[in-house]
Please model this.
Amino acid sequence: MSMELTTINQANTGTITGFASRFSERSEQIKGQLCLLDARFRTSLAEPDEGAATAEYAVVLVAATGFAAVLVALLKSGAVKTLLMALVKKALKVV
Model:
């Protein structure tokens, strides 16, 4: 009878030890992942994307310059000049 109890007791100890070691390993993995997540979060708060903002401003400036060039070319055309002059003359007659 005591042999059976010893075997059962050793089996339970092995199960508990195995669980404890797996729990410890998993706990270390989770700690590492949390540490990495914390580092990424702190880095994103400390240094926002400054280079991206500069690139966005450059793209906006190029687009605005292109739009201005198209607008100037359009306003220099004969049809638009005539239309604008007629509009200004009509406005001056009202006053």
Notes: The mean pLDDT is 79. The CA atoms of residues 80 and 86 lie 10 Å apart.
